[in-house]
Amino acid sequence: EKDPLVVFMPSGKRGRVPKGTPVLSAARRLGVDLDSVCGGRGICSKCQVSFGPGSYPKLGLTVAEDALSPWNAVEARYDEKRGLKPGRRLGCQAEILADVVLDVPPESQVHRQVVRKAATLRDIRMDPATRLYFVEVDAPDMHEPSGDLERLNRALAAQWQIGPVEAPLSLLRRLQPVLRKGGFQITVAVHHAHRGPARLIDLWPGLYEGGLYGLAIDLGSTTVAAHLCDLVTGAVIESAGIMNPQIRFGEDLMSRVSYSMMNPGGDVEMTAAVRGAMDALAGEIAATAGIDPRAVVEAVIVCNPVMHHLLLGIDPVELGQAPFALATSGAMDLACSELDLTRMNPAGRLYLLPCIAGHVGADAAAVALSEAPGEQDELTLIVDVGTNAEILLGDRQGVLACSSPTGPAFEGAQISSGQRAAPGAIEAVRIDPVTKIPRFRVIGCDAWSDEPGFDAAITGICGSGIIEALAEMRMAGILDPSGLIGSAEQVGSDRLRPEGRTQAYVLHEDEDRTITVTQGDIRAIQLAKSALYAGARLLMDTRGADKVDRVVLAGAFGAHISPLHAMVLGMIPDVPLDHVTSAGNAAGTGARIALLNRAARAEIEATVTGIHKIETAIEPRFQEHFVAANAMPHAVDPFPELRK
Ligand code: FES
């Protein structure tokens, strides 16, 4: 008689196993992803499978009612105490007696796939660094003297083939009472990163049935955003953001570096400010989600190099001057207590992604992890626009990176009526090419300014608004290719008014305020967009490419910018408009991937080492490209897609 055949769905993995093999053992043998926290003791219920007798014509199998062994005492006790859903069996208890088809539901898969909502380049495979293990530890014995930690490690090795774990003093203090309270049965949370030792993070008497959570934090110079993720399902439970309190030391990064240079101890103040904010955010997000901060066992942080140093408590002065040396570009694996984070598990761990270069930070590395340019067949240009533009260009042949000093104009700074993207800001503009009359949309109001229902109090214009305004002015013939505003007679519009020796275009006027686009505003945007374009062109030159296949706009700003307007201004190289996409907060997504999958950490560390870094400041061609990119869209480079 042949051994029974078992087929696991949805993977389709199959094989013959000796009659009487427990389902969990069969799954292990066939490489099927079936979870277990209690190690087969019939108490965690993580190993559940669905069993449905009947015929499976596609598989050519008929499954008998008694293909699995009847409930044993352990399974019966579990059902009595907790209740098993109909058709469900505990994989560690049920034994295979005849040919059988078993379905592994998503909640029983360790490495379940989490489908990303945004640009689904790839799914996240669950493989978090911190996991729970239930263990039975030998009681101490006069005849065989050994410590409780040593016996715990023996048990982990025998029952889970992991460890030995290192235990911080704080947990060592709790180990003995917890072991005794649980009758030498305990659940431990173990952090096992892609490298380094396994570490004990927490322990509970008996079976711990609460969840484990982690934070994916995007630490920006203006805002700090965090997602609280379930480390078992991968779901985002809660998201929150706060302003970076370092703003009071300087709006942009370089002014914070200078604050540190001018004020002894300035870096210490800024470090305390950002750590305090992160700690408050961690506490707030756990409270909103109704989760015990102790269950938050990990955080992954992505940030630019200056924030990276300030968070670590390293004076960033070296990043303010050539050759922009980082204290370290490597990834960091730290205890959260080292960064004064008190509102998560006290033994919790922090992972900082590696930086790419002195100007290209861990945030860009996170974008590279999320967008995976090195896995694309098409040559892809990724721009993350902020005070600095971080630019990646690559495909399977390799990835290049640089950062370009765009300045804060794209964020509405240095613009006469500029402001941050907030309610009251003009965010989109259209100008009638014949009448030269503008209409616009304001953040906080859905109607356009010429539509009924428009009732916004207008306070200024934000980055996407000024970009659209300039591009529309160019398309309406108000601006010439060099960026000069024509006179009222030349343009044929009464919306122009002299301002000094130049002209300004009136976008909006009421009793409270007048919002104009001045020649100075145009100059500021020209400088910013030339820097962006020149950076991209420099990477294309180095790669030997005169065009790219795809452009990805990353970051919050990227989500609001219109591809057409960006291209009319010549912010990005010529490419079919439908090949320009927005990746949303790609850095935040990268942080989430690294949080949920430890192999992704090894992957990005390797990728970053392989990225070819270009330093724009020392490349003479950068200056040439910069000058040529001043015109709109460009002095020499053709933009055939715009003519379509
Ligand atoms: Fe825990 Fe089966 S493995 S109940």
Automatic annotation (TrEMBL):
> Where is the secretion signal located?
none
Record domain 2Fe-2S ferredoxin-type: where: 4-108
A single GO molecular function term of this UniProt record: iron-sulfur cluster binding
Looking up Gene3D superfamilies in the UniProt record yields: 3.10.20.30, 3.10.20.880, Domain of unknown function (DUF4445) (3.30.420.480)
Q: Which PROSITE patterns match?
A: 2FE2S_FER_2
Q: Tell me the superkingdom of the source.
A: Bacteria
Name this protein carries in UniProt: DUF4445 domain-containing protein
Q: Which organism is it from?
A: Palleronia sediminis
